[in-house]
Amino acid sequence: MSLGRGGLETMATDLAIGLKARGLSPVLIALDEGGVQETTLANAGIPCHVMGGRRIKEWSFHRSLAGILRRVNARVVHTHMFAPLIHTLPAITLAGVRRLIHTEHSFEYLQPSVSNQRILKFVSRATKVITLVGERMLGFYADTVGVPRQRLRVIPNGVDVEQVRPITNRDGLRTELGLPTGGFIIGSAGRLSHEKNFNDLVSAVARCRQLGGQPHLAIFGEGAERAALETQVANAGLRDAVTFLGWRTELPRLLGALDAFALCSNAEGLPLAVLEAMAAGLPTVCTPVGDIPILVENDLTGFLFPIGDVDALTGYLRRLELQPELRARLGGRARKLMEDKYSRATMIDRYVDAYAV
Length: 357
Known about the structure:
By secondary structure, the protein is an alpha/beta fold.
């Protein structure tokens, strides 16, 4: 992992801050590269180390990582995703750390590789607990990979419901972001990559406008697909209807500028951006991937549409644009769900309990 702006990196940073508040002494190690989370961690007084790239065939890499684990007197190592687990295991053994907790944030990326599934089943014996961020991942890791169910726990991602609140100063936030102060604004956030399907969202906004609507799309994020998306926007005549806002460190606060949130991904676990949008009291329109169908129920907290179904996405966005009372009802229920079941405090408590196994 890195210390960049992704959902996994944000979750790991938030967890570390929460653990410190519980009286523990977390240390973050990025196997790949640093990033914006380094500043957040430094401000919280949490040490971090950047290895500069995984080198599984170089013994010096494993010695260096083991040296860090010894120096910080690591009692528990918590890894995230398959590749970092494999690259970390030799150093954990060298350092004599006896307690390993591992978290998987999705499962689709492992589906095509039977060999990696077999490796994960084998190395899972070295873990005390494997945690999964969503209920719908459980069947894959238990039945397909073959990890014993007694070693699996579901710990959903959580959001700070005290920090992320519905905001009434919408016009002020829109002015700050350079967005239109009036009208219906749809937002989306994430890495601008093929699997996130931002192109479908751009297409849906174009269709809404063809049908007489005037939605504006605000995209938070960066990635390899940005240039292609900008070209799509230009070719569709949407330069005045789509704003690329790049990565923003204050996304929870800025969500208050929006009227609705959309996610078109091919694969997810339990995306933090959707949790934050719901905590901000926004109705969400999402593909039914990962645990999203547990969060988003049609006509209750938002709408679900099949992957790639731009017509269905367009229809739901039109309904939300035309019915402000519907937006308020769905957003209110979404906020209540976050308060009741998906708070960050609950997530941290569950991880502390997992560490003690």
